[in-house]
Design goal:
- By secondary structure, the protein is an alpha+beta fold.
- It has one domain.
- Helices cover 34% and strands 18% of the residues.
- The protein has 16 helices and 15 strands.
- Strands 1-11-12-13-10-9-2-3-4 form a nine-stranded mixed sheet, with helices on both faces.
- It is globular, with a radius of gyration of 24 Å.
- The two termini are 36 Å apart.
Length: 473
């Protein structure tokens, strides 16, 4: 690592470029990718959406609720770059699809109708990174307490008293029947696990409890296990992102819970598509929650089926970037417009370089990935939950597109909300991202200045000297 202000030689890269060992290494490698020239392999996995069930339901979809989030970890001061602050913003975008289409029905887009077609709500939070503590607590215990406070105090909608903590408990129960506690298999204070705990697990209520072994404080937020990734002397971007992704998905489920509880909720559920930015999956320490999301959505779908709404709720994850989006662009010319490509486990293992026997997605996904080529020719990478009782991965039935009753109506709705603003984009996701995004560059400088002022840290920044935040000291 260089000293501060130390600069590398302008020709320091030349030995690496000329190294025979480097050239030999590249000669042994190839990109792990299913060959786009193998047309029969791709086309054998494609199916027109007109062959799928429930094609008569998409016309009744009037609304789209899309949730997106953004996070940023910034240095509290340039003079002390190891002191970091994490910021989180999660936004829910509501789009009236009928008003949206009516606004663009004429020769020109009606800006007033377009504005009336879209509303959004957002919440913001801050979490301590390395070097920040509550007096008397360690860094990791400060993270745990602040995360729990964020869950308990954040309501995702002004018209609903539900908090993220409420939805975390609902996730461990079911639609309309939230659990009073959530399980935690290891005490974050003393490490006591199933061999030491009286019931083999800690049952944590909304307002926390005490460990029966060490007496230490247990928070509901500990159920997310993000404290296991907390770094007292490094970046906590990973833990921050895990928390943001869970918050996004709890927010989406919160709106489903509200509609489920409403007198006319089933009608509203049948008329609404719920879109998540990114795949329907959780990774790392929060991955075990995927089983709870799968169970919750299965319970909600079963309730809808019993009440003659076979294609509800419409839940989909739409990806904007990543390995699968790149691959979709690579093979899109082989997928007929209006068709969906079911990515088999064998195909995924081949394109990602995993071992043939690898069971992809069984521990992370509560939906299955598909590539849908819209009728206008744009490829979309989407994740859709299967029918109740079927696992999206690790189950033979999960590879059959007929076991995804919402797949066709979801694709038909996405066909109607495409936008030319960005490549392969849909309007609800673009609007949600606009409401949730934290800008780089100047945006991070402003967030840094906010942290400096509120923490009372010195700064030589001109922005901070001018005081961009009225009322702060």
């Amino acid at each position: 690592m260089p000293y501060p202000s130390e600069r590398a030689s302008r020709l320091g890269h030349v030995p690496v470029v000329n190294s025979q060992a480097v050239h030999d290494a590249f000669s042994r490698w190839k990109v792990a990718q299913a060959s786009p020239e193998d047309e029969s392999l791709v086309t054998s996995l494609c199916r027109p959406i007109t062959d799928l069930p429930n094609g008569d339901t998409s016309e009744g979809v009037r609304f789209a609720i899309t949730v997106d989030g953004s996070d940023a970890e910034v240095e509290a001061t340039r003079e002390h770059p190891t002191v970091k602050v994490g910021y989180v913003r999660v936004a829910a975008s509501f789009v009236d699809l009928e008003k949206l289409h009516h606004a663009g029905a004429g020769e020109f887009v009606n800006p007033r109708e377009l504005r009336e077609a879209h509303q959004h709500a957002a919440f913001d939070g801050a979490l301590p990174g390395s070097g920040l503590i509550i007096p008397g607590l360690s860094g990791v215990d400060t993270w745990r307490q602040e995360l729990d406070r964020l869950l308990a105090s954040t309501t995702f909608d002004d018209d609903s008293p539900l908090t993220l903590a409420d939805m975390l408990l609902a996730l461990h129960g079911g639609p309309g029947s939230p659990s009073e506690t959530a399980p935690l298999r290891r005490c974050p204070n003393c490490g006591a696990g199933e061999d030491n705990l009286p019931d083999g697990v800690l049952s944590v209520p909304k307002h926390g409890c005490s460990c029966p072994v060490c007496g230490g404080r247990i928070y509901l937020g500990d159920v997310l296990r993000t404290h296991e990734e907390y770094m007292p002397e490094g970046s906590n971007q990973s833990a921050l992102t895990r928390m943001m992704l869970v918050a996004e998905r709890l927010t989406s489920l919160g709106y489903m819970q509200v509609l489920h509880s409403d007198q006319h909720g089933l009608d509203a559920l049948a008329q609404t598509i719920f879109i998540t930015d990114g795949p329907l999956a959780l990774f790392g320490v929060v991955a075990p929650l995927k089983r709870r999301f799968q169970s919750y959505l299965s319970g909600l779908a079963t309730h809808c089926n019993v009440n003659n709404r076979a294609a509800s709720p419409l839940v989909v994850g739409v990806e904007k970037s990543g390995r699968f989006v790149e691959h979709a662009q690579l093979v899109s010319h082989l997928i007929p417009p209006g068709s969906v490509m079911a990515l088999s486990t064998a195909y995924i293992n081949r394109m990602t370089g995993r071992a043939p026997q690898h069971q992809y997605g069984t521990d992370e996904f509560y939906g299955r990935r598909f590539i849908y080529r819209t009728t206008s020719g744009n490829p979309l990478v989407i994740t859709v939950p299967p029918a109740p009782g079927i696992a999206p991965y690790g189950d033979v039935a999960g590879e059959d597109t007929m076991n995804y009753p919402t797949l066709r109506p979801i694709c038909e709705v996405l066909d109607r909300v495409q936008t030319r603003l960005y490549a392969n984009a849909v309007i609800p996701v673009a609007l949600a991202h606009s409401a949730a995004s934290l800008p780089l560059g100047v945006g991070q400088s402003v967030l840094r200045a906010l942290g400096q002022q509120l923490l009372g840290l010195p700064s030589r920044s001109l922005v901070t000297q001018r005081g961009p935040f009225p009322g702060t000291h």
